[in-house]
Write a structure and sequence with these properties.
The structure holds two protein chains of two kinds. Chain A is mostly helical. Chain A contains eleven helices and no strands. The chains are: A mainly alpha, B alpha/beta.
Chain lengths: 369, 606
């Protein structure tokens, strides 16, 4: 099996230059980004609107039995329905457009840079690694920059929208949601970080698996002539087992997250039920509003989770930046490689294998291989 | 259907795990279906706190209703809320185990597909490897496997979830009001029909997109692997254009899929929210007629999600199914290729090194012309045979046949036993071949040499390296024998790679060794040193040397001249230089140059 160890970028800082480079790529699609952001904000608005309409219908039609506003209600709901269709279509179309265009630009830039890199870079970097940067990493990065950031924006907008509506409706009950937000956020962030950390290990092994495929295919004739099939199969199987063990560890962490968040959210519902129920019994609150609070509390952890997930992903997915910072890493890498080579081939008679050759001279290599 | 059955074969070994997952997946929405009943209880309790809620009013177990009825006022709400939390903890445990078992199942499936593919690729015939597109094959082994894994472990259970969610939602809503339940189901056929249309369209588009991605990866791989050639011929602009073209094609096909997704999801959300609106509006009229209560409508609104969203998920499952069918076909294409051992010999005779070729011919299945025509020769144990000839004469074909990389017509005998009757692996264990461009594994020098026999001691490794004239180079590396040679041995020179390959083969002590132009990248002196050291080995060795260098060939016991797949001359150097023909011509050119070079080198050394 290939012994190349993938460099871990997760703890390295992404400097402003790289951020600038990345956003420059995103902003090449300014128009699409602008439409996308508008669609996301509209979607967040609509996400708040329909529980609000349901709450209104409960209070007006069921509780107070005032039916004269039914046509207006139908009109408002119809607009929300049409709005949803149009907004979701626009949102997916634009996010997809930005995603594929950013991935295209990333691949293009990285490929251009690859053409200008010295041979030394290719000497020390496995082909599989380079390919992974230009394919899966560029896809992941473009995914984060389109769907990911949009998800985060949607999360913020929906969270804010829900909070504003709840505060305006009933400040006392809204305090329960306000208190719940940081709890859900911290739990979400903690678990997402540990999950992503676990998956980072999985990802490393996955790179080794890809490299093994590459080695297995390119070296198939040699493997056959040396009758190494059984050995390579065993090595590969061990690698897959390692992957399986680590992936299951990551799965355990991610499986525990949703149940915890669900219970925490319903603890919030418990307080809303108690406090809101009391208010309804005392005549201080309508059932429609109580419904609104219960529904919003249950649904609240969704946008909070989206935001915490994205923050964790942005922190942890730095390995994907390597496709964007391939130039920087290559240059640093090449410099290090040259130093390594000088040390490696250092002999008493010849301190350096790199000799300066004056331009018009003819060099005959008489050294043995 | 057959592709689907092929997909299902991966599931068979885990039927028990699948059963547990199925049960847990079904339980997940069923347990959710009781949550709105708690909320309904709360609403009914608030509205009629003086009237006890009895079985039949609400679909909760009677023991719970009995407990709740023992309390009144705010305490009753607390007890109700706590019961809900305890119930959700129970539900959470089900969800956790569902996720955990799905993970275990998913990883096992992925491992099985990966290892099967890897082992199968290793066993595919050399002719398959000669023609394959590495980039495409790697994509099939990685992203296609991921697609299969994802579908079997996520989307398949999700299908059960959808069915269970729909059933539980329908049941609970029917208990409240059958008419509202029916209203909620109005959009199900619409969603189903759109999902089918989406499936048909997206299936085609996914196929195109996967093909485009594979093409792009192939171009990228060609470029990365052949970067030296690209640079040497200043072909960077051409490479850039070619990659951009393929990358753009892939982008366009991804965009097409995305547009289909946007249309489907936009329409699907329109229907989903429309369903909510319809349920609310119909409920309003029902309330006006005094048919349902507030508690009922709140529960109904919570149940609408159980009926409408799963149908929406169905679209995604269908979309993913189409992608999975494409991926399965691509993976099965590899697994369906017959391995080279499908037609293998059974014998494992003792091999001492006697080889005979009788009327041996060879041609590829897809060509008409024979690359070898009635080749006849004999090699006795311990002899050294050199094969010379122009490029394309069939030299490498002869040795590839001898190590059973290709099948042949005629008869080849190894110590009197027909070659095709001998097990292929046994042949290769006894006949070693060192290639002109050997593949070096991305390991240390030491690991590479002892790769065929990891139990080998250092002494044997050093000895082999000395015979191969590699030892002195290696000891000068900073890490010595522990130096990592990089992917495909990129940190080594061509000559070092060849000598490493020789050392790697020498330690295996095979009775027959083939040097397929494997000394081409070493200088004449090293070539001579290696051949002398080989002669001095204790073990009797039959060697076949393919070479373009006459000085390498001249010391052989027999020299075979090959032209257009036929042997035109066989004899010793002394015999062949006297005969008119290719060998004499080559000797007259190379021999004098070689002498000149030797003189030059000796003068320089002095």
């Amino acid at each position: 099996m290939n012994q190349f160890e993938e460099q871990d970028y997760s703890n390295s800082k992404i400097d402003a230059k790289i951020w600038k480079k990345i956003f420059k790529l995103v902003l090449k699609n300014k128009k699409h980004v602008a439409v996308l952001v508008t669609a996301v904000i509209c979607l967040a608005f609509l996400d708040v609107m329909y529980p609000l309409l349901n709450s209104y219908s409960i209070s007006t039609f069921f509780e107070n039995q005032e039916y004269e506003k039914i046509p207006l209600f139908i009109l408002a709901y119809s607009l929300v329905v049409i709005g949803y269709g149009v907004t979701v279509f626009t949102f997916i179309k634009m996010a997809g457009k930005v995603e594929v265009e950013v991935a295209y630009e990333l691949r293009k830039e990285a490929f251009l840079k690859l053409q200008n890199l010295p041979f030394s870079y290719y000497d020390k970097t496995p082909a599989g690694w380079i390919m992974a940067r230009l394919t899966s990493d560029s896809r992941k990065l473009s995914n984060i920059l389109s769907w990911g950031l949009v998800d985060m924006l949607w999360g913020f907008a929906t969270m804010s929208g829900i909070m504003i509506i709840l505060i305006l409706t009933n400040i006392r009950l809204a305090l329960i949601n306000l208190a719940l937000t940081p709890v859900i956020f911290v739990i979400g962030l903690y678990f997402r970080k540990t999950i992503l950390k676990a998956y980072r290990k999985v990802r490393k092994i996955n790179s080794k698996i890809t490299a093994s495929y590459s080695e297995g295919i390119s070296g198939s004739k040699t493997t056959k002539t040396l009758v190494l099939e059984d050995k390579t199969n065993t090595d590969f199987s061990n690698l897959c087992n390692e992957m399986k063990t680590n992936a299951i560890k990551a799965v355990i962490r991610s499986s525990v997250l949703f149940p915890i968040l669900m219970v925490v959210s319903y603890v919030g519902v418990l307080f809303i039920m108690r406090l809101g129920g009391g208010m309804v019994l005392n005549g201080d609150l309508s059932l429609g509003v109580l419904y609104l609070f219960i529904i919003c509390t249950i649904q609240f952890f969704d946008p909070v989770m989206h935001v915490s997930t994205m923050i964790a992903e942005l922190q942890q997915a730095r390995a994907c930046w390597s496709s964007a910072i391939i130039v920087e890493t290559c240059i640093t890498g090449s410099k290090n490689w040259i130093v390594q080579m000088i040390n490696k081939y250092k002999t008493p008679s010849d301190k350096s294998p790199f000799k300066t050759i004056p331009p018009p001279s003819l060099i005959i290599n008489k050294t043995p291989t | 259907m057959s592709t689907f059955l092929k997909l299902m074969k991966w599931v068979r070994s885990y039927w028990f795990l699948v059963l547990i997952i199925a049960l847990l997946t079904i339980f997940t929405p069923i347990t959710y279906s009781y949550v709105p009943q708690f909320i309904k209880y709360l609403m009914d309790f608030i509205l009629n706190s003086s009237t006890p809620i009895i079985e039949g009013d609400i679909n909760l177990p009677s023991f719970l209703l009995d407990i709740f009825s023992n309390f009144s006022g705010f305490t009753a709400i607390w007890i109700l809320g706590l019961a809900l939390i305890i119930y959700l903890i129970f539900r959470g445990i089900i969800i956790f185990f569902n996720g955990y078992f799905k993970g275990v199942y998913s990883e096992n499936i992925a491992k099985d597909v990966r290892t099967s593919l890897f082992a199968h690729i290793q066993d595919l015939p050399y002719s398959y490897h000669n023609k394959l597109d590495t980039g495409d094959l790697i994509q099939r082994c990685t992203s296609d496997v991921e697609t299969i894994r994802g579908f079997l472990s996520v989307q398949m259970p999700e299908l059960l979830f959808v069915i269970a969610s729909l059933s539980a939602g329908v049941y609970q809503m029917a208990l409240i009001d059958v008419r509202i339940m029916l209203v909620t189901l109005v959009t199900v056929p619409i969603n189903f029909v759109t999902s089918v249309i989406y499936f048909r369209y997206i299936y085609k588009e996914f196929t195109i997109s996967e093909e485009n991605e594979a093409k792009m990866i192939s171009v990228l791989q060609e470029n990365v692997n052949g970067v030296r050639v690209v640079k040497a011929f200043a072909r960077e602009p051409y490479a850039i254009n070619r990659f951009e073209e393929e990358s753009r094609k892939f982008t366009k096909s991804s965009e097409k899929i995305n547009n289909a997704m946007a249309t489907f999801w936009g329409f699907s959300d329109f229907i989903t929210i429309g369903q909510y609106a319809l349920t609310v509006i119909v409920s309003v009229y029902f309330a006006k007629a005094g048919i349902i209560s507030i508690g009922d409508i709140i529960a109904c609104l919570m149940y609408v999600g159980m009926l409408v969203y799963p149908i929406k998920r169905l679209g995604r499952i269908i979309g993913d199914f189409s992608k999975t069918i494409v991926a399965t076909k691509r993976v099965e294409e590899i697994l369906g290729e017959p391995t080279e051992y499908a037609n293998d010999g059974k014998l494992t005779p003792v091999v001492t090194g006697n080889i005979s070729f009788e009327n041996v011919s060879f041609k590829f299945d897809d060509t008409k012309e024979h690359l070898l025509n009635n080749v006849n020769f004999e090699i006795k144990s311990g002899e050294t045979i050199a094969i010379v000839g122009k490029t394309g004469a069939g030299k490498s074909t002869i040795v590839n046949i001898l190590v059973r990389m290709y099948d042949y017509f005629g008869s080849i005998k190894l110590d009197g036993v027909e070659l095709r009757e001998i097990k292929k692996k046994w042949v290769r264990e006894n006949v070693g071949i060192i290639l002109q461009d050997p593949f070096i594994y991305g390991k240390t020098v030491m690991e590479n040499i002892r790769i065929g026999n990891p139990a080998l001691d250092n002494k044997a490794v050093f000895k082999a390296a000395q015979i191969a004239s590699l030892h002195n180079d290696v000891v000068n590396f900073t890490e010595g024998y522990n130096t990592l040679v990089g992917e495909k041995g990129v940190t080594l020179s061509g000559g070092q790679k060849q000598r490493l390959a020789i050392a790697r083969m020498l330690v295996l002590n095979k009775p027959i060794m083939i040097f397929d132009d494997s000394l081409s990248a070493v200088d004449t002196r090293t070539d001579l040193n290696i051949r002398n050291a080989l002669k001095m080995r204790e073990k009797q060795l039959t060697s076949i040397i393919i070479t373009h260098r006459i000085t390498t060939a001249l010391q052989a016991d027999k020299i075979m001249v090959l032209e257009d797949g036929r042997i035109t001359n066989i004899g010793t150097h002394e015999e062949l230089v006297k005969k008119e023909g290719l060998y004499k011509t080559l000797w007259s050119i190379q021999g004098s140059l070689e002498d000149e070079f030797k003189d030059l080198v000796s003068k320089e050394v002095e």
